[in-house]
Amino acid sequence: MERAFYIKRRFMYNLSPVKVLTVCFSVTLAILCYLGATPAAFATEISPNATIASLFSFSGERPDNLGVTMGKLSPCPTSPNCVSSQAEATDKKHQIEPLKYESSAKRAFVHLKEIIEEMDNAKIIKSDAHYLYAEFTSSLMGYVDDVEFFLDRKSDVIQVRSASRLGQSDLGVNRKRVEEIRSKFSA
Known about the structure:
Helix content: 25-40%
Structural class: alpha+beta
Order of helices and strands: HHHEEEEHEEEEH
Number of strands: 8
Distance between the termini: 75 Å
Radius of gyration: 22 Å
């Protein structure tokens, strides 16, 4: 019995502060993930969630393949955390319809920019007459999604691509975001 007490006591004293902090951090992170840490884009306003996001910040690096090349946005990676209106019709995992407009192309693109500016957690990084690039940041873990729009005058539509920077699955967040934008755009 005395030996068991000695082993238990010795084990307790061999825990370094780093080990204790690592365990505490791991447990906290697991709890946060369990409570609904989806990589959805939310407002970057000052809130408890924004504070947590600033602590963890899984933003990743801004991709270097953004923009329009020869009338095309970058193709989606093989992971299911991206949607694109320029994906092949047979690629059901990534394909999404472009935004259709009935007003003038210029007015439609201005309207789209207004919608993005009003959305929580969106930050427009680049905008010109034919291209708009915005970052959407989730409030809980600081995940960043890159969303691009291209005014395709040849097809009279606005092409769209929305992709998560990190991870494998986005739990459908990019598709839902584009559909939310489409709903506001069509209203």
